[in-house]
Amino acid sequence: MEINNLVEKIEKHIDFTYEEINSVIKKYTMGEYSDQDFLPVIKAIYKNDISDKCLYYLTNSMKNSGAVLDQTPLGKTVDKHSTGGVSDTTTIAIVPILACLNTKMLKLSGRSLGFTGGTCDKLECFEGYKTDIPLQKAFELVKENGGCMMTSTADIAPADKKIYALRDKTNLVDNISLIASSVMSKKLATGANIIVLDVKYGDGAFMPDKKSAKILGKKMIMLAKKDNKKAKVVYGDMSQPLGYNVGTKLECMEIVKLLGHYDKHNPLLKACIKLSALCHALDKHIPYFIAKAKVVKVIKNKRALEKLKTMVSCQGGKLDLFEQNYDKPSLVKLAQNDCILKAFKTKELGEIVNTFNHKYKSNEYGVITYQKIGDKIKKGEKLFSLYAPHDEVEEISRQIFDCFIFHS
Ligand code: URA
Ligand code: CA
Question: Is 199 near ligand 1, meaning CB less than 6 Å away?
Fold first, then answer.
């Protein structure tokens, strides 16, 4: 009855009250309503825009479905969130970079879903790294090291965990109100003073283009403001993988190598520098270009790399991966002709890699790409190296090759 009324209001574009949405969200989170009971609410929001007021009520209700952290014992803190992409490993660099500059971050991260990678899965490639540490321990680590990367604890926005899983299962992820409430309920419950949002658009993101990404960005800023938090949005092109590697362990190795070797042209490192500089500038009230110079310095002098090692050790991880070189790939695919890369099927690339890692319960499979959009490629140049289970190398290689689109 209650759910029917709510759905009817959404469909007729009548604003619901906080009490109305909160009662339903609360009962769904507690298990009083099943997925099947709750799904019509998600479908109604997916199909019909809700007003900013209703979006705020929805977000607040999801935020209040669990614990709201008080980060004041840590002093001023910053948080960042990416709306999800392919080969996006920025968190693992940003947290140690900022820690070197005394900009503190308690980073709660998720797992791989659909075509997107998960920071926690990548962190666990440092053998032994514990992502599920108690919050009290995490606070100690932030005080001691300047930052901590861990899994989003069960009691942060539990409503989002259920709703996101349901959306993932029913293909109802790519909706602005649903994404805005999902991201901001978690960020506001985590309790940092400053939030930097990295909104991705393009084939490898939930938002197809910059225009829709900007609408999402504005909604999230509105939600932060209503909660008296400072938020800034940057927009990131996801028409191709952000880095060159796709696959949990390969991505982890890529970011470790980048932190140890400053390359101002590398697109993944450029994204790390931009986001770190923005976080630091907002935290310390300094101009962006000064913050950026400081960020570049701690990468060049390897302090950020050393800080990452400290953070990994403190959470039980071994440091072997820092010294490791890539294994011999299962297959190296070369260009058959001179060609120019026109586009990537980025989402599909992410999906293929996630699918076979899931199937084999592995994190080792994936692809190293060598080209970016617009690159002129000579016959015989490498297109990609593939790490795949023995029996499926040819089939997966064919699927991956199909994700490269060339000018004819
Ligand atoms: N990331 C989130 O946390 N939630 C979404 O709905 C989409 C991306
Ligand atoms: Ca090239």
Answer: no
Per-residue pLDDT tens for 233-281?
999 999 999 999 999 999 999 999 999 999 999 999 999 999 999 999 9
Predicted local distance difference test score (pLDDT) of residue 116:
87
pTM of the model: 0.95
Do β-strands 404-406 and 366-369 pair in parallel, antiparallel, or remain unpaired?
unpaired
Task: Identify which of 119, 169, 182 to mutate to test ligand 1's pocket (most ligand atoms within 8 A of the CB).
Answer: 182
By C-alpha distance, which of 366, 338, 331 is closest to 117?
Answer: 366
Q: How confident is the model at residue 107 (pLDDT cuts 50, 70, 90)?
A: very high
Rounded CA gap, 387 and 395, in Å?
12
Pairing mode, strands 147-151 and 331-334:
unpaired
Give pLDDT tens digits for 351-360: 999 998 999 9
Interstrand relation of 194-201 and 230-237 (parallel, antiparallel or unpaired):
parallel
CB 271 within 8 A of CB 392: no
Q: How far apart are CA 392 and CA 47, in angstroms?
A: 39
- Domains, the chain, in order of start with CATH, read 2-50 (no CATH), 72-321 (3.40.1030.10), 331-406 (3.90.1170.30)
